[in-house]
Design brief:
alpha+beta, five-stranded mixed sheet, two-stranded antiparallel sheet, 59% helix, binds adenosine-5'-diphosphate
Length: 343
C-alpha cells in the first residue's frame, strides 16, 4: 500500500497538549458564563462555587474527549494489534489500510506495512531456497538408495558388508523422508500444492495407514484397538494419508511395549472426528506449545525415528481441509484429535 503524504501531520503529543489546553480554557470560559447567567437569573437561590462549576464542565467535556480519543487513537491501535496477531501466526500478507488524523499512528502503519512486505519477501526467498535445495538433494539420494538396494540383493556379501548396506538404506530412507516432507511443507506454505479433491472412504484409508505401520506395532506387540464408522469424505486423498500416518505412527512410536493404541472415527451432524490415544508418557507442558512447529522434537529419545516435521505437516494439511488438530494429555498417555468439516 502506498500513500503519498502532502503535509506532515502532527503527532499524538501535540494533539493531546492542544486538546487539554483547549479543554481547560473552554471549561473555565463556559463555567464563567454559566455562573454569570445563573447568578443573574437565579440570584441567591443558586449558590455554587465557580470552582465546582469549572470541574463539572471539565468532566462533561472530558467525557466527550475520551470518546473522541477512543475512536481516533485507541481503535487504530486495536486494529494494529489484530494485524500483529496475524503476523505472529505466520501470515505476512497483512497490510493495514487506514488513515489516521495522528501523524504518529500513520507512521506506525507505514512501518508495519513495510515490515510485513519485507517479511513476506524473505519468506518467499526462504521457501524457494528450501525447495530448490531439497530438489537438488533428492536426485543423489534416490541414486544412493537404488545402488544400495542393488547391493542388498547381491550374493556373497560378508555379514559386515550386509550390515553396512542395511545402514546405508535406513539412513537414505530417513534422508529422503526428510527431503520429501520439507518439499511438501514448502509447497503447502507456498500454496503451490495441487488441491485435488476426490471422494474416498476415510475409515478405509485409516485402516490402510494402520496396515502400513504393522511392522512397527507388531514388533512392539502393541494392541491396536480400532472402532470406526464407515465415512465417505471429499478431500485430497494423498495429503490426508500423511495425517493418519503421522498421528498413528507417533502413537505407536511413543506408546510402551505391549500397550494399547486406541483409534476412533465417528461423525456428527456437522463434523468428522478422529482420535488416537496412546499409553506413553504424554507431552510435557513446555513441549505442548511447540509440537506443531517445524523441526520440533520434544522427546529426544526417539530422534532417530523422525525429523520433527510430521505434526507441522499434519496441522497444515488439516487446516487446508478446513479442520482442526490438537493434542492433549490423558491420565495415561495422550490423545490427538482431528476434526474435519463434513462437505
Ligand atoms: P517426530 O515424531 O518426527 O519427532 P512430529 O512432528 O511428529 O515429529 O512430533 C513432534 C514432537 O511431538 C515429537 O518429537 C514428540 O516430542 C511430540 N509427540 C508427538 N506425538 C506424540 C505422542 N503420541 N506422545 C508423546 N509425544 C508426542
Amino acid at each position: 500500500m502506498k500513500r503519498i503524504k502532502l503535509k506532515k501531520k502532527h503527532g499524538i503529543t501535540w494533539h493531546i497538549s492542544i486538546i487539554v489546553t483547549v479543554e481547560l480554557a473552554v471549561s473555565v470560559a463556559l463555567a464563567t458564563i454559566v455562573s454569570y447567567l445563573l447568578e443573574k437569573y437565579l440570584g441567591t437561590i443558586w449558590n455554587v462555587s465557580p470552582v465546582w462549576l469549572v470541574i463539572g464542565v471539565a468532566v462533561i467535556l472530558g467525557g466527550g474527549i475520551s470518546i473522541f480519543v477512543n475512536r481516533a487513537l485507541l481503535a487504530p491501535i486495536r486494529d494494529l494489534g489484530k494485524a500483529m496477531k496475524k503476523v505472529a501466526g505466520g501470515d505476512y500478507n497483512v497490510q493495514v489500510e487506514q488513515t489516521s488524523r495522528f501523524g504518529d499512528i500513520e507512521d506506525i502503519y507505514q512501518s508495519f506495512n513495510l515490515m510485513t512486505k519485507e517479511l513476506a519477501s524473505t519468506e518467499i526467498l526462504k521457501t524457494d531456497f528450501i525447495s530448490n535445495v531439497s530438489h537438488e538433494i533428492k536426485t543423489p539420494i534416490t541414486a544412493v538408495e537404488g545402488y544400495a538396494m542393488l547391493l542388498q540383493g547381491e550374493d556373497g556379501l560378508s555379514e559386515e558388508h550386509t550390515e553396512y548396506v542395511d545402514k546405508i538404506l535406513v539412513n537414505t530412507k530417513r534422508l529422503s523422508e526428510l527431503v520429501n516432507n520439507t518439499l511438501l511443507l514448502s509447497k503447502i506454505d507456498n500454496q503451490s500444492i495441487e488441491t485435488k479433491q476426490e471422494t474416498f472412504s476415510l475409515d478405509e484409508q485409516i485402516r490402510q495407514s494402520i496396515l502400513l505401520l504393522e511392522l512397527k506395532w507388531a514388533e512392539k506387540e502393541v494392541d491396536m484397538d480400532v472402532e470406526m464408522q464407515s465415512i465417505k469424505y471429499v478431500g485430497n486423498k494423498g495429503l490426508m494419508m500423511h495425517v493418519w500416518n503421522n498421528l498413528i505412527g507417533n502413537a505407536v512410536k511413543f506408546t510402551p511395549h505391549g500397550s494399547t493404541v486406541k483409534i476412533r472415527l465417528k461423525e456428527t451432524l456437522e463434523e468428522i472426528i478422529f482420535t488416537v490415544d496412546d499409553e506413553g508418557k504424554g507431552i510435557d507442558e513446555n513441549a505442548q506449545k511447540h509440537i506443531f512447529d517445524k523441526f520440533y522434537q520434544g522427546d529426544t529419545s526417539h530422534k532417530q525415528e523422525g525429523n520433527g516435521l510430521g505434526l507441522a505437516l499434519a496441522k497444515r494439511i488439516v487446516i487446508m481441509a478446513g479442520g482442526s488438530i490438537s493434542g492433549r494429555n490423558l491420565p495415561l498417555g495422550c490423545r490427538f484429535t482431528v476434526t474435519l468439516p463434513k462437505v
